Each structure stands twice: as structure tokens, then as C-alpha cells.
Amino acid sequence: MNDIAYRVEEVARALRVGRTKVFDLIRAGELVSVKIGGSRRVPASSVQAYLSRLIAEAA
Fold this sequence. Notes:
There is one protein chain. The protein has 59 residues and is an alpha+beta fold. It has one domain (5-58). It is built from three helices and three strands, in the order βααββα. The protein has a three-stranded antiparallel beta sheet. Strand 2 and strand 3 (39-43) form a beta hairpin. Helix 1 packs across helix 2. The mean pLDDT is 95. InterPro entries: HTH_17, SinI_DNA-bd.
């Protein structure tokens, strides 16, 4: 992932989960998202922060 923000579908594909799970993570505040026009985007930094939290919890 090298872009600054991703579509929900791209995040789902990268995390190997479904779109619904990504929306659940957004609603739960686990992932930050922004709306640009009619599209929802997830900043790359939010995905990295989420993964870092998961790794820290697993340790």
C-alpha cells in the first residue's frame, strides 16, 4: 500500500477481510475514515495504526 488513502474495498483486500468488516471497524473507531464527495476513504496512516495496535495486543 503506497497511496495516501484507500477505498474501503482496497482496505478489505489488503487486510483479507470483507467490506462489511471494514465498515464495522470504521463504526467502532478502529479505523479512521473521511468522506470525499460520495466516497469513503481510509488514510494509509489509519490502516498502519490499526495493524500496529493489533501487533502490540498480540505481544
